[in-house]
Amino acid sequence: MEYFVQQLINGVTLGSIYGLIALGYTMVYGIIGMINFAHGDIFMVGAFLALIAFVVLTSLGITAIPLALLLVLLIAMALTALYGWAVERVAYRPLRHSFRLAPLISAIGMSIVLQNFVQVAQGARVKPLPPLIEGGITLLDNGTFRVELSYVQILIVVTTVALMAVFTWLITRTRLGRDMRACEQDMRMTSLLGVNVDRTISLTFVFGAALAAVAGIMYLLYYGVVDFYMGFVAGVKAFTAAVLGGIGSLPGAMLGGLLIGLIETFWSAYFSIEYKDVAAFSILVIVLIFLPTGILGRPEVEKV
Amino acid sequence: MTALLEIRKLEAAYGRVVALKGIDLDVKAGEIVTLIGANGAGKSTLMMTIFGYPRARAGTIRFDGRDITAMPAHEIAKLHIAQSPEGRRIFSRMTVFENLQMGASISDPQHFDDNIARIFALFPRLKERINQRGGTLSGGEQQMLAIGRALMSRPRLLLLDEPSLGLAPLLAKQIFKAIRTLNEQDGLAVFLVEQNAFHALKLAHRGYVMVNGAITLSGSGEDLLKRPEVRAAYLEGGH
Hints:
The complex is a heterodimer.
Chain A: H1 2-32, H2 39-59, H3 65-92, H4 101-122, E1 127-128, E2 136-141, E3 146-150, H5 151-173, H6 175-185, H7 187-192, H8 197-223, E4 225-226, H9 230-245, H10 250-270, H11 276-290
Antiparallel strand pairs in A: 1-4, 2-3
Helix pairs in contact in A: 1-5, 1-8, 1-9, 1-10, 2-3, 2-4, 2-8, 2-9, 3-8, 5-6, 5-8, 6-8, 9-10, 9-11, 10-11
Chain B: E1 5-14, E2 17-27, E3 32-37, H1 43-49, E4 58-63, E5 66-67, H2 73-78, E6 81-84, H3 96-103, H4 112-122, H5 124-128, H6 139-151, E7 157-161, H7 169-186, E8 189-194, H8 197-203, E9 206-211, E10 214-220, H9 221-226, H10 228-235
Parallel strand pairs in B: 3-8, 3-9, 6-7, 7-8
Antiparallel strand pairs in B: 1-2, 1-4, 4-5, 9-10
Helix pairs in contact in B: 3-6
């Protein structure tokens, strides 16, 4: 029982990180119908920017954890958003009216560019960050096994829930969100109504990248290490989460992320850690056989 | 007086297929102008080319004296030209209210309540359906929504592509009546593409006939109604 609860906590934490990344995949797919394969690497860039920001802030003497954390969050989100914007501007927008596969290939290219750029600029070695937030709450203790909820885990889950709430509000209630949903349904008609579609698409990438940056910071705090290759595996997992939840659906991305995190954690805990990825992807295959549009995805709507 | 919309020697193509072959056409302020022609003559292409989809290959489009031939679509919309396009293209996964909000993208938020009240006065059905998704509306209601959405921007020129398509005669009549009301009360200039040539020509001050991407006839609505070639091609049999 205690062991199960502990795994549940770990799975939800990991799932939160996947969910934040998955949102970026699903938003971009929703609006321009392409898989942004560079998104995992944007997440990696976000983690590196956060690490650099921590180092810079420490050297400036800002060591109060809450303040430093807030500043790192803002800096990393802003700079990563800039990366997201630039990737769209350079690699996807010029290909928007090209054949369908062109931006996809371009995305794979951008992924390699970002990985190699970070590898050259930061080195190939794993970079550590000493634990900033230590300790936690002991929830259960039966003498042999203690269920720990660490402060980092609380921070990750609370931040994720808060961000998703803000984000849901943005999409459903604001002018920008409405423009995004309109672009998703009929880009040309949206432009006929006076909405700058290019700008709306750019902002989609900016928001997706900012969320990925938050995921990057969470990853950095949770695992304490980053490397230039971490975006690949995390990206594939988050993409799987987006597909599992129903690509194009925002609640689906959150749900998918959570499920992948839980499956992976429980499989590692009860069966074998070597096969955790196999388990996650197998579940994906099974779900897609019975629900081809994912759990919360909508069936292809009829064209009027 | 120069026309509100002035199209000169306009040519456009889809790839290698030439769709518009040197169109000259004017819509003056306060006028209803209709364009009639058979399926595939290029009427809808002309409507969309005004917004740059596809871009004109040659010729000019001016609105209120300004050259808009190469302007991005959203900039053109900001000049208060609105379109209810072919196929209606309402946002089917958005509510009626959200569709109307989208239509108000370029207009001053202060006037939102006034504008929406005007549209509900014109199409009371939309008010009943305000929280319903666009995709669940009937064809006639969708048409009303497409026109209502276009009107939310308080246009100076309204482009209407086949507003009566697929509608029951009574409903079509209601739509035509609404167009006349808007024109007479607010002096709204309307450029109307129609297959229903009889009603369109009766409603319009002037009309143009398009055949294979070129204008072959023009004149006042009444004149065109009397022309034997118009009667033979577009009016007799079925109408």
